[in-house]
Design a protein that fits this description.
mainly alpha
């Protein structure tokens, strides 16, 4: 019964996701939306549609292969075979679990790596985005694997060790340890982790730095550093973000963003990021994420020793580490629903940050122009299908954001217009 439910959920979501992608392709418009006529010419717009089509077909193949690999591994007895192989080493349950989970992660990476290579060096190269040299790509993957492996070892050792020692009652302690470690990582990421992959340099003296510093001061945004990231070494796409919390906040701008946008647009992008801080979006997401993690550990404690779950996946010898592995497959239905709700919430926050930026700048047009230029430079799909947006988008479509800013501008104008 459990196996059938999980199987139906996995296939059902795959079909729903595929339907969303196909509907997205069919909803592509042939004409440039009027709001973007000043940015897109017909050639660039057709190019963006071709990029959407190419990526969508690629994603359909990738998700099909991923699901197929999981089902083949499941129905060929892979979970049981791997468990027996690990047990043959006669390790403690904690180290056996670390090996079991680690091998599954290695297999997942082995499956995803060819797709990542193809996307970077075929699709992104074809559309003029890729600037990643092979040496950089290899070093990035090695660093990611080393860092991910280290974090996986630490987290799995703590969680499996606690469950082995305290049994099912370990869930609250495991959550507390995980929450503390994740908080430490957020604090250390700007200074220790991100510099492993990107070169950070102070924003040079000049008009842009002066204007950004003044904007942060006006908005009482406690930024420690204004930095430039060498994003152009990997891609021509642009981005900006702030990292850290407390007094450790850093605003980071991709060099591609600085090179392609005038100062007013860059200030609007900064105001958007400040808006996330002022509206406490990051804090809210962190708290909700920790509560979600708490709930996950609690439910996991109820499932890790259920014989029917092991039987559904063909595992004959129950253990905490196999139980936790199967749990992550079992909660797929809940994860899908939580993900849809989280995406909707995130999109609302983007609208809020946009409105804050428009108010902080006293004019929505710099942000509107920045959004338009970013969409053109990244060949964004301006009219994604609503189902695809609901399933995957953490940000609203660029067109939706621009229209929302236009509506807010009209509302503000009507409220301040003289009467009589």
């Amino acid at each position: 019964m459990i196996g059938a439910f999980v199987l139906c959920t996995l296939i059902g979501y795959y079909l729903l996701d595929s339907l969303a992608k196909i509907l997205n392709l069919r909803s592509l418009r042939t004409e440039v939306p009027s709001e973007f006529a000043d940015i897109y010419d017909q050639f660039r717009y057709r190019r963006s549609q071709e990029y959407t089509k190419t990526n969508t077909r690629f994603e359909l193949v990738q998700t099909t292969c991923s699901l197929g690999a999981l089902l083949i591994f499941w129905f060929s007895g892979g979970f049981e075979f791997l468990d027996r192989w690990v047990r043959a080493f006669d390790l403690t349950s904690t180290f056996a679990g670390m090996l079991y989970i680690g091998l599954l992660c290695v297999a997942r990476e082995a499956i995803s790596l060819p797709f990542e290579i193809y996307h970077t060096y075929v699709i992104e190269q074809r559309f003029g985005f890729n600037r990643t040299e092979l040496k950089t790509f290899v070093l990035d993957r090695l660093k990611e694997w080393l860092l991910s492996g280290l974090l996986l070892c630490v987290f799995s050792y703590i969680v499996l060790g606690l469950f082995s020692f305290f049994g099912q009652s370990a869930w609250i302690i495991a959550w507390a340890c995980t929450a503390v470690l994740s908080s430490i990582l957020i604090y250390l990421a700007p200074t220790l982790i991100l510099p492993l992959f990107f070169k950070f340099s102070p924003l040079p003296e000049g008009t842009l730095r002066d204007e950004m510093t003044a904007l942060c001061a006006r908005q009482r945004f406690p930024v420690r550093e204004l930095l430039v990231i060498d994003g152009s070494r990997r891609s021509s796409k642009a981005n900006a973000f702030f990292t850290g919390f407390g007094s450790n906040k850093r605003i980071a701008l991709y060099d591609t963003l600085i090179n392609n946008h005038p100062v007013p647009e860059l200030l609007a992008v900064l105001a958007h990021e400040i808006g996330h801080f002022k509206r406490k979006h990051s804090t809210q997401h962190f708290i909700v994420g920790q509560l979600n993690l708490l709930l996950m550990f609690f439910v996991a404690s109820l499932c890790v020793n259920r014989p029917e779950i092991f039987a559904a996946f063909g595992v004959t010898t129950p253990s905490v580490y196999v139980g936790l592995t199967l749990f992550f497959i079992l909660i797929k239905p809940a994860a899908i629903l939580i993900g849809i709700a989280a995406n909707y919430w995130s999109r609302l926050h983007e609208f809020e940050a946009d409105r804050f930026a428009a108010e902080a700048m006293g004019d929505p047009n710099p942000l509107i122009q920045a959004l338009k230029r970013l969409s053109k430079d990244s060949l964004s799909n301006l009219t994604p299908h609503p189902l695809l947006v609901a399933l995957h988008f953490t940000h609203p479509s660029v067109l939706a954001r621009v229209l929302a800013l236009r509506r807010a501008e009209k509302g503000t104008t009507s409220q301040t217009a003289p009467v009589g």
